[in-house]
Amino acid sequence: MAMTRCVRPAVFTLALLSAGASLFAQGNGAPQSPDEFRRMLAMGVKYHSASDFYAALKAAAPGGGRQMPAFNQLPDWSGLWTAVNVSTTGGSFFSGGPGGVAPKLTPQARAALQQGAQNQKNGIEYDENLSQCGPPGYPRWLVIPFLREFIVRPEETWLTSETVNNVRRIYTDGRNHPPADEQYPLYYGDSIGFWDGQKLVIHTDQLMERSMGRNQPTQSDKMETVEIWQKVNPTTIKADVWIFDPGLYTEPWYLERRYSQVPNADKSLRIRYWNCNENPNNDVVKTNDGSTNYKDFTFDDKQKEPSK
Amino acid sequence: MIGRIAAALTLSVLVAAPMRLEAHHSAVMFDDKKEVTFAGTVKEFQFTNPHSWLLVDVTNQDGSVTTWGFEGEGPNTLMRNGIRPADLKSGTKVTMTGHPMKDGRPGALWVKAVRDDGKEFYPGGPPRAAAGQ
Fold first, then answer.
1. Whether the Cβ atoms of residue A255 and residue A249 lie closer than 8 Å to each other
2. Under an 8 A CB cutoff, do B63 and A306 touch?
3. A205: three-class secondary structure by DSSP
4. Residues of A whose CB is below 8 A from B62
5. Could you tell me the CA-to-CA distances from A155 to A74, A300, B27, B45 in Å, in that order?
6. CB A151, CB A157: distance < 8 Å
7. Residue ranges in chain A modelled with pLDDT below 50
8. SS3 for B60-77, per residue?
């Protein structure tokens, strides 16, 4: 195939949208109950900031969260994992949680969602991040499909996804976030954490202001999150996530995400390098009405003589 | 030649689609209300991220040949749905079904491929009925 062009904006459109639902359901447990959802939401709402919440969780952990566990004390998160379909278990940035509890949105976020819904209705979609091969970023990283690996070590955990080879590095060696004069906006933010038994607690800040997805609001650079990751059964890892973002929410929001282990008994599946630009047939442009269309195809560039 | 015999275009209302993760749907360039079905010959299987393309030469009724591109998921998703690079080599006779592009270019969202030995390939997973769900 000819892949020689220099300009290669590409699109994840279908990949992100059409990884089959069959990929997700692998015995992920019962959906979160409304009572449990409300309890978890309340855990975060009572804190003024994600930093305060994280500090409280750390103070309550054995040893004040300051003891780095030995390697053999860490949970086994090996294997390949993938996000469980939101429609199966709930867990959305902007839709109501189990029991119908809705996030308290800022007027800007509400307006952006309404505009996005109108665009959707009119068949207008464009992805400011992925269409040009940018990274999904965090917290969108929590909901993207495809394969993931979780690499756990005492001093650092890597939460990875095959999508554009992204890696979230969670430092658990006792370091803090960088000092203020060394901070700058990051696609995946800066994450520090500690182990509370078999639970990994994470605080993330230094996030970049950017779109959260097609027809979704823009997250602010004030966003911070707290996450608690744990394996809840042999094939399911759960992440409880609290998002603090004054640009999106007037109160912190909570969502639960689950990741199911991908069957791979024959070990045929492996995560490979993901070059978003490798195939120019995936190049897209933003249309005049703000939607998406393919740019040029290369598969019809060699006209054949009609066979008569 | 399959392509010569059956290069007929059929447009129909979608009846049974493979399972899709609608929450991420953004295939606005494709008309998901229509399906096209072509018989043809595989020209090339571009097994690439973030999307793969199966290029199929289709002989038109006037004898000319049009290369159609059918877009599917990336390699690992195809592999998990039982589609491997060697399954659809250049020269393989196939009957393709997909959602055509709205602007009329010869591209489609790959829904189903049926190889001449009868084996079916669904890049987005098998239809719900076939999956028993």
1. no
2. yes
3. strand
4. 306
5. 11, 52, 42, 43
6. yes
7. 1-26, 303-308
8. CCCCCEEEEEEEEECHHH
Looking at residue A156, what is its pLDDT? 98
Q: Do A18 and B65 touch (CB under 8 A)?
A: no
In chain B, what residues touch A307 (CB-CB under 8 Å)? 4, 59, 63-65
Tell me which residue has tokens 């000819």: A2
* B50-105 residue pLDDT tens: 999 999 999 999 999 999 999 999 999 999 999 999 999 999 999 999 999 999 99
Where residue A267 falls (left for φ over 0; alpha for ψ -120 to 50; beta otherwise) is left
Stated pTM of the model? 0.85
B26 has a chain A CB within 8 A of its CB: yes
**Contact yes or no for A18 and B20 at CB 8 A:** yes
What span, in angstroms and rounded, lies between the C-alpha atoms of A142 and A163?
12
Nearest by CB: A300 against B22, B63, B106:
B106
For chain B, the residue count is 133
Reply yes or no: is the peptide bond before residue A139 cis, omega within 30 of 0.
yes
Q: Which of A14, A16, A275 sits opposite B109 (nearest CB)?
A: A14
Tokens of B85: 């690079």
Interchain pair B19, A145: CB under 8 A: no
- Using CA atoms, how far apart are residues A246 and B120, in angstroms rounded to an integer? 50
Q: What is the pLDDT of residues A181-239, one digit of tens each?
A: 999 999 999 999 999 999 999 999 999 999 998 899 999 999 999 999 999 999 999 99
Which candidate, B122, B105, B106, places its Cα nearest to that of B59?
B106
| Contact predicate A226/A53, CB 8 Å | yes
What interface predicted TM-score (ipTM) does this complex get? 0.82
pLDDT of A89: 55
B61 touches chain A (CB under 8 A): no
Question: Would an 8 Å CB–CB cutoff place B51 in contact with chain A?
Answer: yes
Report chain B residues whose CB lies below 8 A from the CB of A94: none
CA–CA–CA angle B67, B70, B73 (5° rounding): 150
Contact by Cβ (8 Å): A158, A170 = yes
Which residues of B fall within a CB distance of 8 Å from A123? Answer: 28
Nearest to A113 by CA among A16, A218, A17: A218
Whole-angstrom Cα distance, residue B57 to residue B65?
Answer: 6
pLDDT of residue B18: 38
